[in-house]
């Protein structure tokens, strides 16, 4: 589950840094009956503000009132939703850096001493992470040990465990 908003990977025009921090602030501008809305992000190096386009030249009547209220209230939950929206990321040509922005809840460690463990992994948000890393952290193993268990056939899953995933999956660990 996420612990904070991810860093936005985009080049800063002032200092050439490539990381921005979203703080959940929005700017909404009305020009007659047309609305523009941006999510504001700050450069981690120089503090320069950049705008990520959320709405562009939208008719006021076509924008849901609750969405507009959330933008006016600078809702951090809305900022998280918009950062994870593929259309917003594609429009603004950004990527997200989830390093240290999530945590793993395993429900305790009493299951680790069993001979066979069936695990179902559920994502609270679409956070791209390598299953090998999740399994290593959740089971108290090193990544090399997890890779060895996969090679020996003692760690099996219907999904490919070596690539990044952002959706739910299951795996079985045999000791």
UniProtKB/TrEMBL annotation:
<dbReference type="Pfam" id="PF06353">
    <property type="entry name" value="DUF1062"/>
</dbReference>
<protein>
    <submittedName>
        <fullName>DUF1062 domain-containing protein</fullName>
    </submittedName>
</protein>
<dbReference type="InterPro" id="IPR009412">
    <property type="entry name" value="DUF1062"/>
</dbReference>
